[in-house]
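User: Can you recover a sequence for this backbone? Please restate the input before giving your answer.

Assistant: Of course. Working from this structure:
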């Protein structure tokens, strides 16, 4: 790693402290977590306002599903992650494969791409408006791209760009809070797809982050590896960091880890009281031809478990 790719002391301390706080929120009861968050409900609660599959709420707030080539995009065996998936008890194939895989990929965008690509009258993102109540909003270009594996108990985040980030690239000026859709957080969008037609909602075991490119998360993972004597990414099982270690806390507090944490703490009623027990950092399986790629992709597995009753 280059020096600028490794988290400095200020960034490290910030996310270690955030991870500690999220650990407390995850292991607390819903009421206890609500109290820690200074929630104003009576009794206080950490529960998200968004429950159920959210299909109607997504329509209301202008979220659209875009088509995904499942065989190409959702086959993690072809992405050289079979050992990692199998190692944590997951099937690596898409549901549409001949081998009866378990993974379904979704691409959810805060824009109508059909309108944007209309050959006769394309409608630019900035010109796409929608109303909720009496208020008019503008599409942001936010994007959540992820895989869901109900049978194995996993969600794999692949590309997460919030509506706020979307406006940074698609609007003349970045949005203010009141210009954003109320349904905007990744953890809430993921929840809708996790619980939809899922007979085993409590079976969430793995939250994965595929090909981490988020600068903050990647720099925290790099520092965690280096501080433990690892100069490069290794194939699964890679390196594991417990929730009680500074490295584990930094990764749980990272932007990608925080999404997983908020998914858990916002849905204790449905999931039970769960925490992230450990985080694995690893790269793709070795190539069959023996060639070592110059660029190694970074992947994370956040292991989700029930909080022991004595905690």
């Amino acid at each position: 790693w280059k020096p600028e790719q490794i988290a400095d002391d200020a960034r490290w301390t910030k996310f270690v402290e955030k991870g500690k706080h999220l650990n407390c929120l995850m292991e607390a009861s819903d009421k206890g977590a609500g109290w820690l968050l200074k929630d104003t409900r009576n009794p206080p609660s950490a529960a998200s306002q968004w429950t159920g599959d959210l299909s109607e709420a997504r329509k209301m707030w202008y979220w659209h599903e875009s088509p995904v080539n499942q065989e190409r995009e959702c086959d993690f065996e072809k992405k050289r992650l079979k050992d990692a998936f199998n190692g944590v008890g997951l099937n690596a194939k898409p549901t549409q494969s001949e081998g009866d895989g378990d993974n379904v990929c979704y691409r959810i965008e805060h824009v109508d791409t059909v309108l944007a690509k209309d050959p006769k009258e394309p409608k630019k993102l900035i010109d796409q408006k929608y109303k909720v109540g009496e208020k008019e909003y503008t599409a942001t270009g936010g994007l959540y791209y992820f895989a869901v594996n109900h049978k194995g108990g996993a969600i794999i985040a692949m590309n997460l760009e919030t509506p706020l980030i979307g406006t940074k690239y698609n609007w003349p000026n970045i949005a203010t809070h009141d210009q954003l859709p109320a349904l905007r957080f990744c953890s809430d969008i993921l929840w809708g797809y996790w619980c939809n037609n899922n007979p085993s909602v409590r079976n969430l075991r793995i939250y994965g982050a595929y090909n981490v490119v988020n600068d903050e998360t990647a720099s925290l993972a790099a520092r965690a590896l280096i501080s433990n004597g690892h100069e490069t990414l290794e194939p699964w099982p890679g390196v594991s960091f417990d929730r009680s270690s500074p490295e584990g806390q930094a990764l749980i507090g990272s932007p990608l880890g925080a999404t997983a944490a908020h998914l858990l703490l916002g849905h204790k009623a449905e999931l039970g009281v769960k925490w992230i027990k450990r985080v694995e950092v690893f790269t793709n399986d070795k190539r069959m031809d023996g060639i070592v790629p110059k660029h190694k992709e970074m992947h994370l597995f956040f292991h989700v478990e029930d909080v022991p009753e004595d905690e």
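That completes the design. Residues 3-306 form one domain.
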